[in-house]
Design a protein that fits this description.
The complex is a heterodimer of chains A (491) and B (300). Chain A is built from 18 helices and no strands. With 491 residues, chain A is mainly alpha-helical. Chain B has one domain: paralog of FGE (formylglycine-generating enzyme) (Alpha-Beta Complex), CATH 3.90.1580.10. Classes of the chains: A mainly alpha (491), B alpha+beta (300).
Chain lengths: 491, 300
């Protein structure tokens, strides 16, 4: 009995146990439901999985299923970020416990009962529990905002290395607070139309209505919601990585106010799509996105400079090669910011290019081509966020030596190969005709399947290792029970 | 040494991905027994519309082609309309007159004034016809395949030439779904690889290592066995073929504030989810593709 109690205590009460559980849930869900689409459907695995797992799939409900699937994965990601925040930043123990309790119960409800409802017939009790789960996560978000309240005197800082006001207001904490608060508000922009359309049992995916000239405020609200939630998850992971790496100095003092400004303006722009400001909402969004992305760039510059400085400290006049070697020496420290840079190729760059050439190029193509670009670029952003989390997790569980190198580099190589191929696939019509595309498409699909498939295999290996570890009396888990991320921040 | 092998592998992969596709490769020929000149009558009345199966009604009888317009039919039209000067050659395309749309000035809307617009390109290697400067002819083996690489203008002018129309989206949907139930596919509720031509449906015309998915002859999925390939009957409640898969089909609606024209039915290039009756696609009316065709409708 003590055996089970200790493990449950680790998985549900410790920071690293909670993160492990959420990663394991996402890994399982991705593995199972990833077999229902794309190449897995082509080679017949989808039909096999549906039969074996006795899923009950109705053609007209595909969009609804996908919406629940997206939500269920993203809720677990939000939970992981929340565990990280509550372990990295100072806060009252009561809030920390309460936030974690609500969000854990919430995301597990969403994942288990949401997916149960969506893929295994319509048990309406499951749907109710799914909605309760979402509500609990929302409540956890509200509590997190209270816990992060930056004007609390306990959180005043005076260290000049970190951005703060004259009165000692911690600007980084304020950035966390602003991101958490706007996330909670932006969730409402999904909840309201979700209830509106859900009650009529009508579902649609935003990418399928993009070309309609007249959209209702509810439709705009959904489009805004999905964009901003993913952007906020990305902003939050940037802040988390910055805290983990102990981002500080002049660049920190410049970046943090920009992060706050960017987050708020970005949100105002997105919320504006359901108001009469809609015609200029995109402009506001661009204005907001710029400082946020610049702040991430400053983190990258600072972090790379530090990696080079630390790695060449013993050398008097390091050469370019030595600096480069120092930069990439630790893939888990280099990787997260590299992925942020790579994101410009797969997501931001594509998004900006599409916006600039929308009517000249992309809207000359059929809507289905535009849909590929839209869904492709935000899938890529989601995958990049996931890899950043996995790299932080690799450091968190104390990977060292060759295993650390292997784990870090394989994540980078597998994911970037796949995502580069996805990006070329999205843009293929720019350089190859529809009739002549198949050989290129085949190779791109091989690269995507190779990258994503092996990434999942790598994740599975880590999860199996951690599962075996849980059966050991003095496994790694027993050391992690008491560990907090705040103590592991870079010196 | 290992690095050299890796580089060689990557280079060969790159070269393979750039390999050109033989667009004139021979295709198998099959007689489906389905008459492309046949029409089906759709009677006035209610039906279930869209994904949510909302009740809708069409208060008149209409007829709609049993199959997509074939390459043979369209080439015949091109030759006739070129001879009687309904159409003309303009640079490397055949153009015809379209009276234009009312321009509302809505965001992203493009003005379509009265004038000559492209029906088909004359020099696209993906087309299933050839043009020698005066006459069109069908490439061997493609006679009974759906006409593709035809713009919305090309579809609209073809139907109009014979006094017909492109079906509206509602007309198309009712013809595909029938009037009794909310089926997602013209033949019913489930899809199989041998009931329609979609991406990786493994029909005899598909070669995913080179050409990819190609069109199948109109009416191909009628329960016949072609060589060692057996098909299921895909006919809709009103007796129409190819209302799901093979080629997207242009529809006739011109919506206020929007220059896009809508297509229905999914195609050889899309996954089965796009074959569901309510799924819409759209493009500018001058767009043409090897995966887009059409059929006409008329009032009896």
């Amino acid at each position: 009995m003590q055996f089970i109690k200790d493990r449950i205590n680790y998985l549900f009460k410790s920071t690293k146990g909670l993160i492990l559980l959420a990663i394991a849930m996402i890994a399982m869900e991705t593995a199972i439901f990833g077999m229902l689409s794309g190449p897995m459907a082509e080679i017949g695995i989808r039909d096999f999985v549906i039969r074996i797992l006795r899923m009950d799939l109705i053609q007209a409900e595909r969009e609804g299923r996908i919406i629940i699937l997206y939500h269920s994965i993203s809720m677990a990601v939000i939970a992981i970020e929340t565990y990280m925040i509550t372990s990295l930043l100072k806060m009252k123990e009561f809030y920390k416990t309460a936030v974690r309790m609500f969000i854990t119960v919430g995301y597990l409800f969403v994942m288990i009962f949401g997916m149960g409802f969506a893929y295994w017939g319509h048990n309406w009790a499951f749907h109710g529990i799914y909605i309760s789960g979402l509500a609990l996560i929302f409540f956890a978000g509200v509590l997190l905002c209270v816990a992060l309240w930056p004007w609390n005197k306990e959180y005043v800082i005076t260290d000049k290395d970190y951005a703060h006001t004259k009165r000692g207001l911690d600007v980084e904490r304020m950035a966390f607070f602003a991101t958490a608060l706007t996330t909670v508000i932006s969730a409402i922009f999904g909840a309201v139309p979700g209830s509106f359309f859900g009650n009529g049992f009508e579902v649609f995916l935003a990418e399928n209505i993009i070309r309609l000239p007249e959209k209702t405020p509810m439709q705009y609200s959904i489009i805004g919601h999905l964009h901003i939630m993913l952007a906020l998850i990305a902003i939050m992971i940037t802040l988390i990585i910055g805290r983990w790496l102990n981002f500080k100095g002049i660049l920190h003092r410049v970046a943090m106010p920009m992060m706050i400004l960017g987050t708020i303006v970005l949100n105002l722009g997105v919320w504006g799509v359901v108001t009469p400001l809609e015609p200029i909402a995109h402009m506001i969004i661009y204005v907001g996105a710029t400082p946020s992305m610049l702040a991430a760039l400053l983190l990258l510059i600072w972090s790379w400079a530090k990696l080079i400085r630390d790695g060449t400290v013993q050398l008097q006049k390091p050469t370019f090669g030595q600096k480069l070697a120092a930069l990439v020496r630790d893939p888990l420290k280099f990787g997260p910011t590299w992925q942020m840079l790579f994101m410009n190729f797969t997501t931001s760059g594509i998004g900006i290019f599409m916006a600039i050439r929308l009517d000249k190029i992309f809207r000359v193509w059929p809507a289905r081509e535009e849909r590929i670009e839209l869904t492709g670029h935000w899938h890529a952003l989601s995958a990049i966020i996931a890899t950043i989390i996995l790299m932080y997790y690799g450091d968190m569980i104390g990977l060292k030596g060759k295993i650390r190198q292997l784990y870090g580099w394989l994540i980078l190589i597998f994911s970037d190969t796949a995502l580069a191929a996805v990006t070329i696939f999205e843009m293929k019509r720019l350089f190859i005709s529809e009739a002549g595309q198949q050989p290129l498409v085949n190779w791109l699909m091989y690269a995507i399947d190779f990258g994503l498939g092996l990434l999942l295999v790598l994740l599975a290996v880590v999860m199996v290792w951690r599962l075996i570890d849980l059966f050991k009396k003095k496994g790694r888990w027993s050391e992690e029970v008491e560990q907090e991320l705040e103590k592991e921040v870079e010196k | 040494m290992k690095r050299i092998y890796l580089i060689l592998f990557l280079l060969s992969a790159l070269l393979a991905s750039c390999a050109s596709v033989d667009l004139d490769a021979p295709v198998p020929t099959f007689n489906t027994g389905v008459d492309p000149n046949a029409w089906a009558t759709v009677s006035a009345g209610t039906f279930f519309h869209g994904q949510a199966a909302d009740p809708a009604s069409i208060d008149y009888d209409y007829e709609i082609m049993v199959t997509d317009v074939t390459v043979s039919q369209y080439v015949h039209f091109l030759n006739e309309a070129l001879t009687n000067r309904t159409l003309k050659v303009d640079s490397e395309q055949i153009v015809g007159f379209y009276p234009g749309d009312v321009f509302q000035g809505v965001k992203h809307e493009i003005r379509i004034d009265p004038g000559n617009y492209i029906l088909v390109p004359t020099n696209d290697p993906a087309s299933r016809f050839t043009f020698n400067g005066t006459d069109f002819s069908v490439k061997k083996g493609w006679e009974n395949h759906p006409m593709t690489n035809v713009s919305w203008f090309g579809a609209w002018i073809y139907c109009g030439y014979y006094g017909w129309l492109l079906p509206t989206e509602l007309e198309w949907e009712k013809a595909a779904r029938g009037s009794k139930d909310d089926r997602p596919f013209p033949w019913g509720y489930d899809i199989a690889r041998n009931i329609a031509n979609f991406y990786t449906s493994r029909d005899p015309f598909e070669n995913m290592s080179s050409n990819g998915s190609l069109t199948t002859p109109v009416g191909f999925y009628n329960g016949q066995t072609y060589g060692d390939y057996s098909t299921l009957i895909s006919v809709s409640p009103y007796g129409l073929y190819d209302m799901a898969g093979n080629v997207w089909q242009w529809t006739g609606d011109v919506y206020e504030g929007m220059h896009y024209r809508f297509m229905r039915g999914g195609s050889k290039d899309t996954y089965d989810m796009d074959l569901r009756i309510w799924v819409r696609n759209n493009a500018t009316p001058s767009y043409y593709s090897p995966g887009v065709g059409f059929r006409c409708a008329r009032k009896p």
